[in-house]
Amino acid sequence: MSLAAAQHGFLSPAGVEIAFLLVGLATFGAALVTVTTRQLVHAALWLVVALGGLAVEYLLLTAEFIAWVQVLIYVGSVVVLLLFGLMLTKAPIGRSPDADSGNRWAALAVAVAAAGALVWVVVDAFRTTWIDLKGPAAGSTRVTGESLFQNWVLPFEALSVLLLAALVGAIVLSRKAKADEAFGTSATADTPVALPGEKEGAR
Amino acid sequence: MNDALDVALRLLVVFVVFLTFPLIVGQTEHKVMAHMQGRLGPMYAGGFHGWAQLIADGVKFAQKEDVVPAGADRRVFQLAPAVALLPYLLVLLAIPIGPSEGAVGQVLDAGIFFVLAVMGVGVLGSLMAGWASANKFSLLGGLRTAAQLLAYELPMLLAAASVAMAAGTVSLPGILHAFHWWWLPWQIVGAIVFFVAGLAELQRPPFDMPVADSEIIFGAYTEYTGLRFALFLLAEYAGIIVLCGLTTVLFLGGWHGPWGADGLGWLWTLLKTALLAFVVIWLRVTYPRLREDQLQKLSWTLLVPLSLAQIALTGIVKVVIS
């Protein structure tokens, strides 16, 4: 470990390290704009930049598989869902005056605490470990798959059960809302004047 | 060969393919559609059977004024065509057309994930265009685009996962090196699911609800003019090339053919891709447009179960033969 640290000084960074730092700064900047901009759809688009920057960081850490999955899930699906949701709302072009939260200081405190915990854990876990760029790729699909399905099978399966539970929960919730609505309309069938208001309330 | 020169040459070849192949597909579409409908199609531009029609169209598009509506979100509006087009250029880099090292732009370890991930980014272009145009028809087009994603994304990924399981690798050349002819009947259900889901991703008929010209004018692209509109069209045709190339590589054995893969492998890839592109055009002339909810029903009650069944079959056969 100390040998590795002696070989790689912090004061003479290699090209990859400089690129890593610059992409990191760009990602951080995009993330800041995401939470501070008053234009809702712009926030979602800046989120794309931040998530894409994260994927580039994974690539620079030789974790190719994780990088593409990041793009596939977050940029290709999550952000599209987010934009879909925004389009269903008013989401005007230009500033939304109410696109702010009274909880901003609490949110900042939580974010700083979470970031602090993550940085501490990662720094403590890896210390002065350096990735050998000349050797076999440390984050190729094969290596990732082997470590995931040999060493980390239990957390992996627990997570998939959690996701399944969330899926079933979403279906149950959406079906329950529909059943309530049907019940509400049949119960007030003899008072048709109140019907539209009832329906609005049920939604 | 010098490394930098090698990279530059590969990029140049991919770029030329990216610029010419969509035009060839476009011209074929003009002619094939015309003959299927008892017309002649373009006959005058360039002299011989109107071969230069799309070049003339391109010149026309380049001359037109590039209008940005007053109420639009200017920068997002202008950026959208690039976001829609560039992903397909990147995907072309990873598609191998021949067995040798030189027949692919860049060998990627996680090729399948790369192509599916990057293709998915193209949808953002339509969404940006739909929202930033400040036009109700555009917004409806954008909404339909996003809703369509919920239908095709899952079956497409599952079908691709089936091939990856069969080959035991997620690298595109690796899959082709593992290919045998009997994969064709083995993976045929996955192939059909992948191709249909891909058609929905490209918003090609019968899944062209997001651009349905008789309902919402031209969907997210309604407000676009000139070169930016041409870029969206180019993205659609580049998408056809990419989808057909990917289906060829994943399911139809790419460079493998009856008379050996050596030397003429690239010809097999191009031939299969061209055949699939013809099918895409054929479907456009044949089927009426589905409604958005009909696509959702098709996807969730047919494509997803079929692709899951394909994965189960792949797993069983894989266990039996190993």
Automatic annotation (TrEMBL), chain A:
It catalyses: a quinone + NADH + 5 H(+)(in) = a quinol + NAD(+) + 4 H(+)(out). One of its GO terms (molecular function) is quinone binding. This is NADH-quinone oxidoreductase subunit J. The keyword Transmembrane applies. It comes from Streptomyces cellostaticus. Its EC number is 7.1.1.-. Belongs to the complex I subunit 6 family. Its main location: membrane. The chain crosses the membrane at residues 18-36, 43-61, 67-93, 105-123, 152-173. GO terms for cellular component: plasma membrane. It is a multi-pass membrane protein. It is found in: Cell membrane. It is an enzyme of class 7 (translocase). NDH-1 shuttles electrons from NADH, via FMN and iron-sulfur (Fe-S) centers, to quinones in the respiratory chain. Couples the redox reaction to proton translocation (for every two electrons transferred, four hydrogen ions are translocated across the cytoplasmic membrane), and thus conserves the redox energy in a proton gradient. Keywords: Cell membrane, Membrane, NAD, Quinone, Transmembrane, Transmembrane helix. It holds the Pfam family Oxidored_q3. InterPro entries: NADH_UbQ/plastoQ_OxRdtase_su6, Nuo/plastoQ_OxRdtase_6_NuoJ. The keyword Nucleotide-binding does not apply.
TrEMBL record, chain B:
It is an enzyme of class 7 (translocase). GO terms for biological process: aerobic respiration. GO terms for cellular component: plasma membrane. It is found in: Cell membrane; Membrane. The chain crosses the membrane at residues 7-26, 79-98, 110-133, 154-176, 182-200, 229-253, 265-286, 298-321. It comes from the Bacteria. GO terms for molecular function: NADH dehydrogenase activity; oxidoreductase activity, acting on NAD(P)H, quinone or similar compound as acceptor; quinone binding. It catalyses: a quinone + NADH + 5 H(+)(in) = a quinol + NAD(+) + 4 H(+)(out). Its main location: membrane. Keywords: Cell membrane, Membrane, NAD, Quinone, Translocase, Transmembrane, Transmembrane helix, Ubiquinone. Pfam families: NADHdh. Its EC number is 7.1.1.-. It is a multi-pass membrane protein. InterPro entries: NADH_UbQ_OxRdtase_su1/FPO. Belongs to the complex I subunit 1 family. NDH-1 is composed of 14 different subunits. Subunits NuoA, H, J, K, L, M, N constitute the membrane sector of the complex. NDH-1 shuttles electrons from NADH, via FMN and iron-sulfur (Fe-S) centers, to quinones in the respiratory chain. The immediate electron acceptor for the enzyme in this species is believed to be ubiquinone. Couples the redox reaction to proton translocation (for every two electrons transferred, four hydrogen ions are translocated across the cytoplasmic membrane), and thus conserves the redox energy in a proton gradient. This subunit may bind ubiquinone. This is NADH-quinone oxidoreductase subunit H. The lineage of its organism: Bacteria, Bacillati, Actinomycetota, Actinomycetes, Kitasatosporales. The gene is nuoH.
